Amino acid sequence: MSLKRQPTLPLTTIGSFGSSIDRSSVAQQLLERIKGALIRGELLPGDYLPSETELTQSLGIGKSSVREAIKMLQAIGIVEVKRGQGTMICREPGDPLVDPMAFGMILARGMTRDVLEFRKMFEPAYTLQAMDNVRPEDHVRIQQSIEAMGSAIANGEQTARHDVAFHRAVLHATHNPMTIRVGTTLLQLIEAALETSMQTLPEVALKDHKAIYAAFLAGDAEAVKAAIDVSSESWETNLTYVS
Questions:
Q1: What integer pLDDT is reported at residue 193 of this predicted model?
Q2: If pLDDT is split at 50, 70 and 90, which confidence band does 237 have?
Q3: Can you name the CATH fold of 15-89?
């Protein structure tokens, strides 16, 4: 596929987009072709897709199928339609209207063992990543989350959001959009279990957070993993999902 880079105009194409496609699941096939072009680097962030007319003519499909595919790409935050210019590949991940990964994880929430295994693997990994990338303002947010949890517990007002705030602060300290996206979805998925933990074992949760952050602050990777492992024993017993 030959693509001319024009930041403000639609791209002219031949090759991958230029061959006709099967009539079944036309929009899905077009999505797969666009995904393939992105993976191969034939389309880059900021590039424009061929125009609706060009895609219709080169692929031998109807405009409705092209529009359906574009709407799908918009919904998951891959493209942005600019009036008078065309359909542009987003320069950076946006907030999708529909997050397929989030829905996939939510639909799998009944599989308790899978949730446990994933969090046990993922939380130490992103915490160590955050330890390498943390900035001064991140330390402030993490400390504030611990203080806010302590105050809420003292007043008997603790909720899952106080627990989530700590994990979210650590997660954002990674400064990695992909890690943050996956982690945010995971936190949404386990929030019910965190709520149970905060009502039954709030002091334990607070103690665990302090231990994790002390190891984090010391830059001790092994101590971080050990503290998270201890913490996992608490929330594992409080999972409310069906096994």
A1: 76
A2: low
A3: Arc Repressor Mutant, subunit A (1.10.10)
